[in-house]
Design goal:
There is one protein chain. The protein is an alpha/beta fold. 38% of the residues lie in helices and 20% in strands. It folds into 2 domains: 337 residues, Rossmann fold, CATH 3.40.50; 159 residues, START domain (Alpha-D-Glucose-1,6-Bisphosphate, Chain A, domain 4, 2-Layer Sandwich). Strands 3-2-1-4-5-6-11 form a 7-stranded parallel β-sheet, with helices on both faces. It binds NADP nicotinamide-adenine-dinucleotide phosphate. The site of NADP nicotinamide-adenine-dinucleotide phosphate has 28 residues, from β5.
Length: 506
């Protein structure tokens, strides 16, 4: 286990969200399955349940040593709920008492997520029934079912209905916008306010919502498990405040002490706003479109029955924002929206899995007397706020082109600016391999006519270290080959200088 893993899990368990919950843990009830454990909510629920003594099985779609290292006490299972063969799902659900259903494919984009979500729920419901599990706890979305809902909110309700078709007792929690470090909604709001001096306010920005802190969501999720009377019931959960979207932005500008002019705007379509927002925030258009489509609906709790079963005072919007900002400042963002990124599965072919190796490669290296640890630390600072040390404008231009094409772009940044773990994103890369002091391998998630990797290695050569940077690229298409050769002159400049800068900063 690397230091990065250790420090991350220790830091979080020292600050469990549920320490003031009025209910008692009941670890003897049996095994608890957390689906979507690699996601934003699931990734925060697993350590919480573990800290309360539960036997936890965490379900992820792709095996990675990172999960076991993060939660040494949990059992990790690999299953894809969309897989036609349901054996893996059967193994995940075997012997389970309660399953948390936290699967979501929102980031597949507006055209694809609805069908994927309903199919996943159907497969899950059937296998859960075969395995005779006792309970399902599902976290869905708020929204008045009488009104015409966005496809995102409608899909959340359809999933609830699908899960309820079984004989298993299903508890449904419905939440609106979740505010917390690493949440997509919070990062969109925060970046818009920080980066813009004028914000256009369309009519739907006057709709009301009831944002809830991530901490309170986790408390309710755990509370549902520990209060048996919640079995089979539905609950709306929200924070202390009911606000318009405009008021949320204004309050945040007040908290950040940033002067922003809010100007009424007659155009009311959400698509254009979503696309523009994606250019100013780390969150790509596929996500902003789904989220902003829901802004035309009021997302306010219709009832507050949950307070009878799990009574505690939820945070205000301001408290949630201040807590999220503090977590970011302390570099303690435990999970982030970018952790779960379904297109990453299509791109997840690993470098060593290529049958005949990458078609192209270019390597730069230098010798240095500096020690491996300090060089590696310097390598691990790339991206995010630090940028790429030189020719940042070239990296940013490439990122902006990617964003315009609907890709993730380079503004996605990083979850933590001091620690990296496998699967973290760094701008338009995702970490494929991390061997402390030896190797950092990044896989590209840009829109490319091929697949690309960037590898940093350090070799100990006695009294010298060899620091190398290799760009690998694999493509079959003519356009892909043209792209590679067109980029070579830029690669030469940026990669060579990047190596020098890494060495200089170490
Ligand atoms: N985050 C919010 O602001 C918010 C607000 C209100 C309600 N909710 C609800 O909370 C729930 C969880 O949301 P979240 O924000 O944690 O979502 P998320 O970060 O997007 O995570 C979704 C999880 O689902 C997994 N998944 C998707 N398709 C799968 C499949 N076919 N098989 C197995 N796993 C699959 C993903 O795995 P991979 O990592 O492999 O992709 C990921 O772990 C959702 O129902 C959502 O509607 C969230």
């Amino acid at each position: 286990m690397t230091d990065a893993f250790l420090s991350q899990s220790q830091e979080d368990s020292s600050d469990p969200f549920c320490s003031d919950l009025p209910c008692r843990p009941n670890p003897r009830m049996g095994k608890i399955l957390v689906t979507g454990a690699s996601g934003y909510i699931g990734g925060r629920l697993v350590p919480e349940l573990l800290s309360r003594g539960y036997q936890v099985r965490a379900m992820v779609r792709r095996a990675s040593p990172e999960y076991q290292a993060r939660w040494p006490l949990a059992e990790i299972v690999v299953a894809d709920a969309l897989d036609e063969k349901t054996e893996a799902l059967g193994k995940a659900l075997a012997g389970i008492h309660t399953a948390y259903y936290l699967l979501h494919s929102l980031y597949l984009g507006p055209e694809q997520f609805e069908a994927a979500d309903i199919k996943a729920a159907e497969n899950f419901r059937k296998v859960a029934q075969e395995q005779q599990i006792r309970r399902i706890i599902y976290l869905g979305g708020l929204g008045d079912i009488q009104s015409s809902l966005s496809s995102h909110l409608r899909s959340r309700i359809e999933v609830a209905e699908e899960l309820k078709r079984s004989q298993i007792s299903v508890t449904i929690l419905r939440a609106g916008i979740i505010i917390g470090s690493g949440s997509a909604s919070y990062e969109i709001i925060q970046h818009l306010v920080r980066r813009l001096s004028i914000i256009l306010v369309p009519s739907w920005a006057k709709n009301r919502c009831q944002p809830i802190a991530i901490r309170d969501v986790i408390k309710y999720l755990v509370g549902m498990l520990e209060v048996p009377e919640t079995e089979g019931k539905n609950f709306d959960i929200g924070g202390k405040d009911i606000l318009t979207y405009e008021a949320m932005l204004k309050k945040l500008s007040g908290i950040l002490n940033k002067k922003v002019f809010f100007i009424p705007f007659p155009v009311s379509g959400t698509r254009g706003f979503a696309y523009l927002s994606s250019l100013f925030t780390p969150v790509p258009a596929s996500i902003t479109q789904c989220l902003m489509d829901s802004l035309k609906n009021e997302v306010v709790c219709q009832e507050d029955n949950v307070k009878r079963y799990v009574p505690f005072e939820p945070m205000s919007y301001k408290e949630a924002i201040v807590r999220a900002l503090t977590r970011e400042d302390q570099d303690r963002v435990y999970t982030r929206w970018s952790d779960a990124y379904p297109p990453a599965h299509e791109l997840a072919l690993k470098l060593h899995e290529l049958s005949i190796g990458p078609a192209f490669g270019v390597r730069y290296f230098l010798a240095t007397k500096k020690n491996s640890q300090s060089i590696f630390k310097s390598i691990c600072n790339v991206g995010g706020k630090e940028g790429w040390f030189n020719h940042n404008w070239l990296w940013r231009t490439r990122g902006m082109i990617d964003r315009i094409l609907g890709g993730v772009g380079s503004s996605r940044g990083r979850r933590s600016y001091t620690k990296l773990i496998i699967n973290d994103v760094i701008d338009f890369w995702r970490i494929e391999d991390l061997q402390d002091g030896e190797r950092l391998l990044l896989r590209s998630e840009m829109k490319l006519p091929g697949k690309a990797w960037l590898e940093f290695t350090i070799e100990d050569k006695g009294d010298e270290r060899k620091l190398a940077l290799t760009a690998f690229y694999d493509t079959q298409s003519l356009w892909g080959k043209i792209y590679w050769y067109a980029c070579l002159p830029f690669h030469h400049i940026i990669f060579k200088n990047l190596l020098f800068d890494i060495e200089k900063r170490s």
